[in-house]
Amino acid sequence: MAHPSEPEVLDQALSGIGVDEKLLVSILRKSHMRKGCSKFFCEDERQFERWNHTAIKSLKAEFKRFKDVVVLSLMHPWERDARLLKKALKKGPMQYNVIVEIACIRSSDELLGARKAYHSLFDRSIEEDLASHIQGSERKLLVALVSAYRYEGPKVKEDTARLEAKALLNAIKNNDKRNAMEDDEVVRILTTRSKPHLKEVYEQYKKFSDKTITEDLEVELLLKETVECLCTPQTYFTRVFDAALRDDADEDAKKALTRLVATQESEEMKGVATKFEGKIKERVKGAYKDVLVGMLEK
Amino acid sequence: MATLTVPSAVPSVSEDCEQLQKAFSGWGTNEKLIIDILGHRNAEQRNLIRKTYAETYGEDLLKALDKELTSDFERLVLLWTLDPAERDALLANEATKRWTSSNQVLMEIACTRSANQLLHARQAYHARYKKSLEEDVAHHTTGDFRKLLLPLVSAYRYEGDEVNMSLAKTEAKLLHEKISNKAYSDDDVIKVLGTRSKAQINATLNHYKNEYGNDIIEDLEADPKDDFLALVRSTVKCLVYPEKYFEEILRQAINKRGTDEGALTRVISTRAEFDLKIIADEYQRRNSVPLTRAIVKDTHGDYEKLLLVLAGHDEA
């Protein structure tokens, strides 16, 4: 078997998610690889091979993953969530799904802890920051989601759940006339009811529609994610892992890998993650991979 | 400052329980004993008494009290004996029920309690009613009232002193604009009242007065018949100067023909271990008569006695 050429080795070390540090170190001294590696180096008109600008950007992101996962996993969960929320808010609408994820997947006390940490870190409450920085139709929903302190007991009222499933169906049907995300009843139900109750609402909904709530909400992505996180978190995790590990995954999707593995201690997440362990070992590299796999195997 | 007084040498819990049990036994009830004991114990002590009483006599102290007492005195004893979190949860729950519904009480609890006190009330609500306060408030209120009350009860406000003065300026201007257009339930008004810290709101209102000449409260008096506007006014008072709010409630309760015992009981029992002294001082300042004297004039019997004890009035 022929030895892979140095450019091929470089390519191998730097592609995928994360960076294969060992492989890199083994070929670092050799300078011939620049000529053969058009992925990373391009011939400049002044006769030298310069780093491809986009390649550097994505390299930075790949090297950063290890540091991010270390910092995130050593942090207190409350500080972690508070910082993630702040960052998501700063990044804007493309990242609002992170706000939904944290507000809906954490337990009532974990979310409360994040709110406390937010006070300490930023001298403001998360509610006020969300309310002042979000201008769009998601504002009502997102502010209410982070303010929730849901009852966590099993008690559920079937008739109420049925009525509320109907109300949701109505709002979804009228979505073109009035955005379901701004509908008072939709917001009330999704942001105040307990998770067991919402799971019951999810079941009851099937009696009135041949699709599930999440299927009917394909158009309203944020609402769909809200329902997913609250009622069927495994579906959410599966979707996020899948998107992160695809060949054409973008940076935001890949970042989700760090976020999920470093912040989720729930059995549900672990269960989903184990299904992806093979793909992770294949697509992810280096010390970053070791950390992820180590955390999943704990 | 609290008006509750606890003796420096407190009897042991078992002694207290024994005395209480004696107060219930036999013909009639020894109300004086109940007042002497429960009226001079703080929340931690009262909780311990309840726990020990149940262990010793196999009955919930509150149930025993319910059996023995009646009317206004009973309501006061019952509310007082509960610890602050449970008391708030009970009052809030009542306020969402049809016949006893009260947007004002919900707002009062949400705005005059500290962030942690409100949180404890929400936790007590979970334990007692097996649902969250937010779901009940959301379910039982509608329209503008829900729009205001839901954020108020869900808030976990920042409690530090950090204030952003330029934000105060911007928001004072915003409020002035909305109020001038009578847009009292506008999203931005709700945002300020429902999420900002009390210190920040205070700074905003100070700026409002500096800039526009009027106290925001004056500008919120446009329509005396507008219930929602009245609620917004009270919300502002509760957030920024609660003692003035409570003084007004007490004054109205006492001056009302026949007295509003519900309000009187609620204010005395919920503030005695917090800031009733400040409220009483405000009452005297505003009405030229001590609160205790007004209580004596307006109430009687054991109800009056316990009110006075809780208001710090030393009985001879």
TrEMBL record, chain A:
The processes (GO biological process) annotated in the record are: response to cold; response to heat; response to salt stress; response to water deprivation
User: Would you tell me the Gene Ontology cellular component terms?
Assistant: cytoplasm; plasma membrane
Q: Which InterPro entries match?
A: Annexin, Annexin_repeat, Annexin_sf
Recorded superkingdom: Eukaryota
Q: Name one GO molecular function term.
A: phosphatidylserine binding
Which Gene3D superfamilies does its entry note? Annexin
The family database entries (SUPFAM superfamilies) matched by this protein are listed as: Annexin (SSF47874)
> Under which name does UniProt file this protein?
Annexin 4
TrEMBL record, chain B:
Q: Name one GO biological process term.
A: response to cold
Q: Where does Ca(2+) 3 bind?
A: 298
Can you quote a single GO CC term? plasma membrane
Q: Which PROSITE patterns does this entry report, sorted A to Z? A: ANNEXIN_1 (PS00223), ANNEXIN_2 (PS51897)
Q: GO MF annotations for this entry? A: calcium ion binding; calcium-dependent phospholipid binding; phosphatidylserine binding
- Could you tell me the keywords of this UniProt record? Annexin, Calcium, Calcium/phospholipid-binding, Metal-binding, Repeat
Entry keyword Iron-sulfur: no
**Where on this chain does Ca(2+) 1 bind?**
24, 26, 28, 68, 254, 256, 258, 296, 299, 304
Q: What superkingdom heads the lineage?
A: Eukaryota
- Assigned protein family: Belongs to the annexin family.
The domain section of the record reads: A pair of annexin repeats may form one binding site for calcium and phospholipid.
List the protein's name. Answer: Annexin
